[in-house]
Design goal:
By secondary structure, this protein is an alpha+beta fold. It has one domain (3-119): Arc Repressor Mutant, subunit A (Orthogonal Bundle). It has 5 helices and 9 strands. The chain has helices at 8-12, 44-54, 63-71, 78-90, 98-101, and strands spanning 3-5, 18-21, 24-27, 32-35, 38-39, 60-62, 102-105, 109-112, 117-119. The strands form 2 sheets. Strands 1-9-2-3-4-5 form a 6-stranded antiparallel beta sheet, covered by helices on one side. A 3-stranded antiparallel beta sheet has the order 6-8-7. β2 (18-21) and β3 (24-27) form a beta hairpin. α2 packs across α3.
Length: 120
């Protein structure tokens, strides 16, 4: 297994399908988040949001863009997105994940602020 620091172009083009950040491993192919090998219980939409953000580390992603991604353009309120982001933050325990990886950006956006490593 080889690892490398991920760049957005590598991630978005789908070259790497497993991402590691801290004690977490995220597989976009399997749609699963693991913490030290154990699968964490996250719903499909929460995983879609996390994958989208983790594939764009450091980028500011608007709430609308995330909602379009997770709900395929269906008209939903921002409250649903906030609930899903809260679920992501609480999955392994609030102290471990918290806002350490996903940051709220003023003006209605989010950013993945953790360091992401690609696993081949």
């Amino acid at each position: 297994m080889s690892t490398q620091v991920c760049s957005s172009s590598v991630l978005i083009n789908g070259t790497n399908k497993k991402l590691k950040f801290g004690p977490f491993e995220l597989s976009s192919m399997e749609k699963v988040l693991r913490h030290e090998g154990a699968v964490l219980p996250l719903g499909r939409r929460s995983l879609d949001i996390l994958i989208y953000l983790a594939e764009r580390p450091g980028e500011i992603v608007a709430e609308k863009e995330l909602m379009d991604r997770a709900w395929s353009g269906a008209a939903i309120g921002e409250a649903r997105l906030r609930v899903r982001v809260a679920a992501i933050r609480k999955a392994p325990g609030e102290r471990q994940f918290g806002s350490r990886y996903i940051s709220n950006i003023e003006g209605g956006a989010y950013s993945f602020v953790g360091s992401v490593v690609c696993i081949e």
